[in-house]
Amino acid sequence: LVTGYRNKLSFINACAKAIDLCRVAVKALQAISDKLENVNWQVTERSCTDGGFGGQISINDDIMKNVTCNCTFQNNTVCHVDNMYDELCQGYFLEIIFLKGQNISGVFPSEFGNLTQLKVLDLTRNYLNGSLPTNFGPNSLVVLSLLGNRLSGPIPTEIGDIASLEELVLECNQLVGPLPPSLGNLSKLHRLLLSANNFTGTIPETFSKLKNLTDFRIDGSSLSGPIPSFIGNWTKLDRLDMQGTSMEGPIPPTISQLKLLTELRITDLNGPNMTFPDLKDLKNLKRLDLSFNMLTGSIPDSIQDLNKLDYLFLTNNSLSGQIQDWILSFRNNMNLASSHSSSAVTSPSGTFLVQENPNKSLFINCGGDQGEFEGINYVGDLQQDGISNFILRNEGQWAYSSTGVYLGNANGNYIAQNTFSLNISGPEYYQNARLSPLSLNYYGLCMPKGNYKVKLHFAEIMFSDDRTFTSLGRRIFDVSVQGFRYLKDFNIVEAAGGVGKGITKEFDVDVDDSTLEIHLYWAGKGTTAIPDRGVYGPLISAIEMIPNFENPSKGLSAGAIVGIVAASCGLVILILVALWKMGFLGRKDTTDKELLDMKTGYFSLRQIKAATNNFDPANKIGEGGFGPVYKGVLSDGDVIAVKQLSSKSKQGNREFVNEIGMISALQHPNLVKLYGCCIEGNQLLLIYEYMENNSLARALFGEEEQKLHLEWPTRMKICMGIARGLAYLHEESRLKIVHRDIKATNVLLDKDLNAKISDFGLAKLDEEENTHISTRIAGTIGYMAPEYAMRGYLTDKADVYSFGIVALEIVSGKSNTKYRPKEEFVYLLDWAYVLQEQGNLLELMDTSLGSKYSHEEAMRVLSLALLCTNPSPTLRPSMSSVVSMLEGKSPIQAPVIMHNENSQDARFKAFELLSQDSQTLASSAYSQLSVEQRHKSEDGPWVDSSISLPSGDYYSSTSKLV
């Protein structure tokens, strides 16, 4: 089992003196051989030769090169197997068993745990499956490395009993579940590498005791909760990787205590905006990546004093201020793309010269030579440019940029070839690809204004298609076009159905400023060490940009074309002016006159009156807190919904500015689209897309003639749509938004029963604080999270709670606030937890479904709903984690919340308080509506039916309105 041999042992000469190998070791080695599919050992008690410390093991009448034993036991009469060792530690121990990179397959043998004198066990890069045994400890292991296998299940608690353990490497497997607190007992641990698994929960408090850690990696997991402040205890830490998790910001100030850090990578944090961490004392820092963290403020000048810093990546933050010269000194080792919310950073598209002949289409063979494929001529893209380059190609017709450094392999490839000679069908461009370790952008330049079809071609060609460790890689990245993320956690192999298989993703996008941008970004997920370290990041085979319009130059002179294209660049300035007027770029006050000057997406009052037949009551489809909603038909036949905001007070204008500012910046398939606005005199109107199937509330619990029979696949699609829409609001959009009033009436259904979230009248931007205490609780009784309802404590986890309630309603077909199976149960959620205790959750299923539903999917949704409604907001998952769990990509570990009559659970206390304290207020607010209005508020799609409740007076002096 030495490198280069799969089924055969490689041997060295040894002395002949034989001493008995202990029987436990004999049995363990033989059992291990029997369980592994391509191992054939014959072990006896006489297998250990050349006694003393560092003896050799003879198997099948030969000496195993890297299997050693210690024969000093019982006065040099008994031997134990001593080491299974990795080349990373050569010279540290004298004897080794070396089973690295041998493609050993089979279930992981529990008998490894019986070799109690084993010092080092290294099974890195094999093909082992199954779960880890629980009999590992206590023993003498110092190094346990299982990187790059197919191991599943949780980490056994018993590993925490191996007091001698100094290195635990479990990267690139399929392990799940929470991190066992017992690992905090490993006081000698130096390296803890857990990346590229599916761990959930939070980092245990016991990890604060790991004060000897020098290397901690947890990339690409589904961990949630805040980054613990106790990381400041890890003062010996040299490297800290927390990329692509579902953890929450901010980065704790104790990070400043890690003065030995050379590499710090913390990205993709959830939660509200956060300030730049204090890193001035991290004088040894060489590489820093804080991308996608919603950082605000300016880049501290203290960063320039970090003299050893070579790489600085701050992609996609909300930083402000000017980019100083010292930052630009990083040149090729810097990425600030989309990092600044102001004009401090100039987009590459802003620096391109306008050509006399604008491109109408573009075809690129990414990573390959120019050629004709399927009758289309593709330009070549063979340049071997790597770290942080921006390259103009074909006389400025297009460009690409690549940023990042491959972890563990600074000289990694930026062009991929068909390394494993895969049998790839389809065009020749699938034989090669362009790569990047972090971010890959392609720009189509000088494109005429209009709508384009973008085709992106992918094929995974860097993993094998067999039963070896080289097939175990998982490449995961995000895909955005024109600033909108169309694909999150995109996995080519999953999408195409295997390696070496091509897949095409198509998108229709608009070009307004002569530039079409495609952005592929690695968010820290997937494997990084299969088949070798440095194999990860975005990969693309070919690109097509094709106009969906006629040649716009017909009948125009070359000068006119240039003028049109150049003028389109002015749109960027207009957008900035509009944002400035709306307060997003520093202005705080917006007057009616300023609103009148904003013409983007503008509709005239005459148009709207004609569309709604002068706001005919027959076209009224809903009544909300802002005013009525009308159905309208434009002159071109497009059907719209018009929300007529109240003009009685200035407050309406202010809320209008809030809505138009946020919603116009948001584009997602699961959000109701805002077409534009109308501002004339006292009229404040919002024009939305029309939703044919009304609201989810009416579909589920409306009158019999209004209800829809939703099949199980449709219900799953609706759940998924709501989750994706919320994930976009919380984590993916540039403006991070908490909706605050997720409920069935605020989920609308289009003609294909796709779910779209509506009503952003209550949504507020997450600003600088981590949490907010509100003196005005805006939401709906029965859907509000306990911490928000009782204390005004607002985070995005309030929406997660509300999603859990709506998910229960979708599965059960019952209203959370109206269904009471027994008098002692306040809400549907209360009953759900009782059924969970009894093991009868499926009793909640809508009886109209009969048996026509997937029990597995139903249990997944129900368990997830209960996880989302955990009383503790920190234990609720992020919405991106919810999406992953709904898709079955991540497991669900929903804690059981016991309910009894004397329960002090925050949820039930909140139920009781809300039921008692707000009953009068709710009744009062409700009674002000006419019978017709109440009916439409429940059944119509366009409602603001929330009730505002005052939180306690004891918050009024110090709280912040949100």
Automatic annotation (TrEMBL):
UniProt-listed Enzyme Commission number(s): 2.7.11.1
Its membrane topology: Single-pass type I membrane protein
CDD domains: STKc_IRAK
Class in the EC hierarchy, top level: transferase
Gene3D superfamilies for the chain: Galactose-binding lectin, Phosphorylase Kinase, domain 1, Ribonuclease Inhibitor, Transferase(Phosphotransferase) domain 1
Domain Protein kinase stretches: 615-897
Membrane-spanning ranges: 556-580
A UniProt-annotated Pfam family: LRR_1
A single MF term (Gene Ontology): protein serine/threonine kinase activity
InterPro entries, A to Z: Kinase-like_dom_sf (IPR011009), Leu-rich_rpt (IPR001611), LRR_dom_sf (IPR032675), LRR_Rcpt-Like_S/T_Kinase (IPR051824), Malectin_dom (IPR021720), Prot_kinase_dom (IPR000719), Ser-Thr/Tyr_kinase_cat_dom (IPR001245), Ser/Thr_kinase_AS (IPR008271)
Superkingdom to which the source organism belongs: Eukaryota
Catalytic activity: L-seryl-[protein] + ATP = O-phospho-L-seryl-[protein] + ADP + H(+); L-threonyl-[protein] + ATP = O-phospho-L-threonyl-[protein] + ADP + H(+)
GO cellular component: membrane
Subcellular location field: Membrane
Keyword set, alphabetical order: ATP-binding, Glycoprotein, Kinase, Leucine-rich repeat, Membrane, Nucleotide-binding, Phosphoprotein, Receptor, Repeat, Serine/threonine-protein kinase, Signal, Transferase, Transmembrane, Transmembrane helix
Protein name according to UniProt: non-specific serine/threonine protein kinase
Organism ancestry: Eukaryota, Viridiplantae, Streptophyta, Embryophyta, Tracheophyta
